[in-house]
Specification:
61% of the residues lie in helices and 5% in strands. It is built from 19 helices and six strands. The longest helix has 37 residues. Helix 6 packs parallel to helix 12. It is elongated and about 100 Å long. The chain has a two-stranded antiparallel ribbon with strand order 1-2. A two-stranded parallel sheet has the order 3-4. A two-stranded antiparallel sheet has the order 5-6. By secondary structure, it is mainly alpha-helical. The chain binds arginine (ARG).
Length: 458
């Protein structure tokens, strides 16, 4: 007999039962469901809607159900449709009459949201910790490698020399913004939906503020129609996860590239790489590849729920049951990705020699030659042109700017003096870029210490 079976004369088709059920995936919110129900029952008793005796019976019964679930003795069945009815049904079987009063002044429409919001809030906390640990690892890698020089790229063409740590700290900034986005999303998750009823509120004298306090929500929702139909909070979490995934995917792409023989900038630890079943020489970067791949999947989950929501009239519609699997999938995968990505970074070795080799042969100090001329009074656009013709000259002679003699320099401009040769070394190029946020050691160390200060707050 279904909990809602009163008006039905015929059995539900087994096909519908299978199609309709969410219990196979929403059972992971059993703890939140029980917590929500206990708080609801306490409020009902406080408001004299049920007796204190009945409340105690309900609470004891719910804790027993929890025990059964955790010890593996609970029978999950699609006949119960979802976790809410499975738990309520079992409660009634265990405690009888009092159990039948639990659903007073409540609907599954506000109940499912109390579960989902509590659950999402918890998972958001986990993602926050994962982000913080990854940021901590980025600082560790940056500090460990502070002297390492590498080519900085634009269009994936060698552009200007930078510190490797500057590159790593760029990701720190991305994950810092992700953390801010996460914290902001939590503010909108942290709202009590219970009390909205099916859609219009309830005729019982409930106390929502009391339930809010019991469950630790920051606010009580304002409009019952909005409350039962809103899935913005879960969309926002999907978005935050998608953004984290995108940042990790970009870094992954670089690590994959850097691990090739062609680059050989880094080497992944044996413990965090895989081999080939046929080619004995292979060492494959499966972790960053999978992280890059998961990004596509997480985007899919975001687009999927956005699309589910786009045509829904107020208030509750069953369509919104589709909000969970995608989110669960994204949060599970991103939780794992954050953790393994961090381990991979901490164990990765950096090939300082090869990174530095990447500096040479690409005229990576050409900007500095142009800047040299500009600082001697030649308008920058003209200095750019002169340097361009010097690059062409070097290419023809198969040499580099720093290998030219002073006489050769002077062929291009009288403004060149002997100090040019010391001002266009790689080290001078890097340390000279001491503008706020630049790549000089000074600026990178500042970023690292600001980063540490931020992490200390958590
Ligand atoms: N399993 C449902 C969901 O996830 C619970 C709410 C059902 N409400 C209803 N009126 N059928 O959305």
């Amino acid at each position: 007999m279904k909990l809602w079976g009163g008006r039905f004369k015929k059995e539900t088709s087994s096909l519908l039962e299978k199609f309709n059920a969410s219990i196979n995936f929403d059972k992971r919110m059993y703890k939140e469901d029980i917590e929500g129900s206990i708080a609801h029952s306490k409020m009902l008793a406080k408001q004299d809607i049920i007796s204190h005796e009945e409340q105690k019976t309900i609470e004891k019964g719910l804790l027993q159900v929890k025990e059964e679930i955790e010890s593996g003795n609970f029978v999950f069945s699609i006949k119960d449709e979802d976790i809410h009815m499975a738990i309520e049904g079992r409660l009634i079987a265990l405690v009888g009459e009092a159990g039948k009063k639990l659903h007073t002044a409540r609907s599954r429409n506000d109940q499912v949201l109390v579960d989902t919001r509590l659950y999402t809030k918890r998972r958001a906390e986990e993602i926050g910790s994962g982000l913080l640990e990854l940021m901590d690892a980025l600082i560790e890698v940056s500090e460990k490698n502070i002297g390492v020089i590498m080519p900085g790229y634009t269009h994936l063409q060698r552009a200007q020399p930078i510190l490797f740590s500057h590159h790593v700290m760029a990701y720190f900034q991305m994950f810092k913004r992700d953390l801010e986005r996460l914290e902001s999303a939590v503010e909108r998750i942290d709202v009590l939906p219970l009390g909205a009823g099916a859609l219009a509120g309830t005729t019982y004298p409930i106390d929502r503020e009391y339930v809010r306090e019991l469950l630790g929500f920051a606010k009580v929702s304002e409009n019952s129609l909005d409350t039962v139909s809103d899935r913005d909070f879960i969309i926002e979490m999907n978005f935050v996860l998608a953004m984290i995934a995108m940042h990790m995917s970009r870094f992954s792409e670089e690590i994959i590239m850097w691990s090739t023989k062609e680059f050989s900038f880094v080497q992944l630890d044996d413990g965090y790489s895989t081999g080939s079943s046929i080619m004995p020489q292979k060492k494959n970067p499966d972790i960053p590849e999978l992280v890059r791949g998961k990004c596509g999947r997480v985007y899919g989950n975001l687009v999927s729920i956005m699309t589910v929501m786009k045509g829904l009239p107020l208030a509750y519609n069953k369509d919104t049951q589709e909000d969970k699997e995608g989110f669960f999938d994204s949060v599970d995968n991103m939780g794992m990705s954050l953790e393994i990505f961090k381990e991979m970074l901490l164990t990765m070795s950096v090939n300082e020699e090869n990174m530095k080799k990447g500096i040479y042969g690409g005229f990576i100090n050409a900007t500095d030659v142009a800047d040299y001329l500009a600082k001697k009074g030649i308008p920058f656009r003209e200095a750019h042109h002169i340097t361009g013709s010097m690059v062409a000259y070097c290419e023809e002679k198969n040499t580099s700017l720093e290998e030219l003699s002073l006489e050769e320099f002077k062929q291009f401009s009288d403004a060149f003096e002997s100090d040019v040769l010391t001002l266009i070394t790689v080290e001078a190029c890097i340390e000279g870029r001491d503008s706020y946020g630049g790549t000089s050691t000074n600026q990178v160390k500042r970023q690292i210490s600001e980063g540490k200060k931020l992490l200390e707050k958590y």
